[in-house]
Amino acid sequence: MPLIVKDHTWTQNQNTVYICVPLKGVKTANVHVICTDEYLKVSFPPFLFEVFLFGPINEEKSEARIGNGVAVFTLQKRRDELWEQLFTNIDKEKQKQVREQAILKVQEKEAEKSKAKAARIQQEKKYALETMMKLENEERDRIQKMKDEECARATVELDFWREKQRKTAEENDNQRKLQGAGKHENKPVYQKTERANVTPAITPLLNTANTTSGQRSSKQKPKDLPAPRSAGCIKISFTPRVFPTALRESRVPEEEEWLKKQAEARRAVDTDLAELDDLREEERNPDWLKEKGDKLFMAGNFQAAVNAYNLAIKLNRKIPALFSNRAACHLKLRNLHKAIEDSSQALELLTPAVASNAAARLKAHVRRGTAFCELQLYVEGLLDYQAALQIDPQNEALRNDTDKIREVIQGTTSPSSS
User: Fold this and answer.
1) Of 7, 168, 209, 418, which residue is most buried, by most CB within 10 angstroms?
2) Predicted local distance difference test score (pLDDT) of residue 347
3) What is the pLDDT of residues 309-337, one digit of tens each?
4) Are 364 and 348 contacting, i.e. CB atoms less than 8 angstroms apart?
C-alpha cells in the first residue's frame, strides 16, 4: 500500500489554485503526474498524493514545477470563483470511475503524441530524401550547364578558325590570279616575235613547254606528306585466372557459380515499382544507389545512406553488399537488431564461401558480432568474430578483439573495458 501524503498546502484566488506537495526526499525523475479537469494524482513511490478537485480546471493552461524537494501545481479554474475546499466528497465508485477516465485520457494523449511523432519522423525522412534528390538534380544541372557552355565556346572557336582559314585561302587564290594575269599580258609580245621565225613543226612543242612552265609557276610546291600507315591486326591475350590452390583441390565450380549468381543479380532489376516512377534512369540502378549510399556514409549522413540502400534493395535483393553496408549504417544509428538482420541476410547471399567473397564475408561477420556484443550477447558475438578470424588469421586487431570478448565471457574483465 502506498503512503498517502497529507502534509500538502494550497492557496487560491478567483481564477487559480496553487498546490504544494513535498516530495519526501524522492528524486524528481521518479515523480509521475496525472492531471485532468477534475482529478490530480502525484505518484512518487512509496508515496502518493491524490485529490478529486472541488471544481473543474483547465488542464491545458495548468502548470507543474517539480524541483527543490517539492512539486508546485498552478491550476487554472474554468469558473472564476472561490472554492470552499480543495477536495470534493464523492463515493468510492465515483472515485474509481474518475481514476479510470483519467488514465484513459492520459493514454489517448500519449497515443496522439506517438502518432504525431511518427508522422513527423516520416515527414522528416521524406523531406531529407527530397532534399537529397533536389541537390543531386541541381548538381547534375550545373554540370550539364558547364558542358553546354564549354561546347558552345568550342563551337565558336571552331567557326572562327574555319572563317580565318577560308579568308586565307581566298587571299592566296587572289594572289595567284593576279600573278597569272601579269604573266599572261607579257606572253603575247614574246609569242608574236618568236612565232614569225619558227617553223610550224616546232610551234606545238614551244606551246607545250610554255604551258607547262606556266602551270608550275602558278602552283605551289607540294608539301612532303608522310606515307599512309599500313593496316594491321593487334591480338589481345587475357591472363588466365589463377586460383590459390592446386587445380585438383580448387573450388572452380563454386567460384563460377558465385560469379554467375552475381551477374544474374546485376541483371535482375525490378523497375515496376510505383514509387520509382518519378526517378530518372540512372537512379533506378542499384549500383548507382550503392555508390551514393557509400558517399553519404563516408560523409556521416547515416540515415540518408540507409534511405539510398533501402531503395537499392527494393530494386534488387540479391546484392549482398547492400545489406552489409546498411548493417554498418544501423550500427552507427544504434539499430542493433536491424544490423544483425542485415548482416545475416548478407551472409546468406554470400554463399558459396569462396575466395572472391572472403573480404565481404569478413565484414558481415564483424558487423554482426559487434551488434551482438552491443546487445551483451557475447557468446553469439564471439562466434562471429571467430568465423571472421578463420577468414583472416593474420589480422592482429581482429585477434585482439576476439580475445577481449572471450575474457568478458570468462569473467576476467568487465564489458565496459572491452
Assistant:
1) 418
2) 93
3) 998 898 888 899 999 999 999 999 999 99
4) no
CA nearest neighbour of 268 among 325, 305, 314, 303:
314
Specify the long-range contacts of residues 300-303, CB closer than 8 Å, at least 24 apart.
Answer: 302/329, 302/332, 302/333, 303/125, 303/128, 303/329, 303/333
Check if the beta carbon of residue 366 is closer than 8 Å to that of residue 388: yes
For residue 199, the surrounding DSSP H or E stretch is: none
The edge-to-edge listing of strands for the beta sheet with 70-77 is 9-12, 16-22, 70-77, 57-67
Residue 324: burial class (beta carbons within 10 Å; 0-12, 13-18, 19+): buried
Q: How confident is the model at residue 37 (pLDDT cuts 50, 70, 90)?
A: confident
User: DSSP for 313-364?
Assistant: HHH-S--HHHHHHHHHHHHHTT-HHHHHHHHHHHHHHS-S--GGGHHHHHHH
Residue-wise pLDDT tens digits, 201-222? 444 444 444 444 445 544 555 6
